[in-house]
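Question:
When you can, review this sequence-structure pair and walk me through the tokens.
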Amino acid sequence: MVSFYQLNYGQKYTFFLTLIVRWEIFVLMIAKTSTLIRINSNAKTSALAFTQQKKQSFKELLSLNKNRC
């Protein structure tokens, strides 16, 4: 196995460049995952609010219909 100190400048440069690119990919994957989780939770909240709003408007229509009779 070759020691890190025995590598020439180009090999060290390539090693660090590869390390940095892999780190950036890892960080971007985490950021993308957390964004998708946040979007998904916002969508669930919006869907729940929409459903509750529809239930409320349906109850209002029923009460108006009862008042007419």
Q: What stands out?
A: The mean pLDDT is 81. DSSP finds one helix and no strands in the chain.
